[in-house]
Amino acid sequence: MPYVVDTVEVTPQLLALYLEAVKTVGLAVMTDAGARFVSCATTSIDVGENVDVQIIWFFDDHDQWNVIRRNLVLDPRWYEYAQRTAALRRGGTRRIYHPVAFSSS
Amino acid sequence: MIRRFEIYSVQAQAPDRRVLALETACRRCGQFIPEVLHTAVGWNLSDAPAELVWEHAFDSAETYRRYMVHPYHADVLDRYLLPDSPERVVADNDLRAGLVGYACDGPVFVMAGGVRRLVLLRVGRDASPTQIDHLVSVLGDAPAEVDDLTLSVAGANTLGSAWFDAETPIGGRPFWGYLWEQGFRTGDALDAYLDGPSALALAERREWKGIMDDIVEAAVSVHYVIDAPRPQPG
Question: Is B74–A92 a contact, with Cβ atoms under 8 angstroms apart?
Fold first, then answer.
């Protein structure tokens, strides 16, 4: 079962706004499209550097991801979510991970 | 066969290394997804609001669907393309032609090199099938009239709405209903056509007004040197 892992850099000042966007818009958009939410976590906030936010989703396989992507493309909220979060982040990465055999999840 | 184009603007602030990564990912797509054929990347030289053009093709709707679910598509290409990806390098634009394509009987679009031009045509809703057939026929026969034109293929933009599986339309009618793909040996040959005396060049300069029963309401084009690297600023 693959995981979509977004690791996003935000400044501490914008962290709350970023998390609010994920919580109030991103969760609904992604889960309505068919992705399943795994976790959202951050690095430490008060350590004098920008914060990494890691958001993880999972899906059954790439056939399902193709359907999820179609659903996202057809959902106007996705574009609003993308614009809102793009304005709040400094950078980041997106990677898709596949669990190894000895991993339980 | 399915001929397909993805056409993108690039974010002004996108890091060069990431733009190069997208360009490379498009160029190498066929190495990882064998169903993706005739891949080439070009950088638009026209005034249209687009920069990167990725041209490619598929043998059938079935092979297109295999491309859609291939891990390389989601894991690599989408990294730089999807609006919510933190690594997105492309930008929204007003072209309304992010993904377009048409069906053809074989690889009639193949060129060894040179300049590719893609004209996007908006045909009026009132145009009859006969008028549309005539338009497509005239455009397809253009090399017989225009010396500088080495290749000319026209077809309905079926992928503009059937982008999910190459068969089922999703959403409404695409803004650009027809595509006219042209080939030229050089940029000078393209300029010679555009400035030349042919009826089609004249139609383009007149923005299709008073020609072909006025069924073409709007047109825009991109053109690029096939597989040329990204032009450097300045």
Answer: no
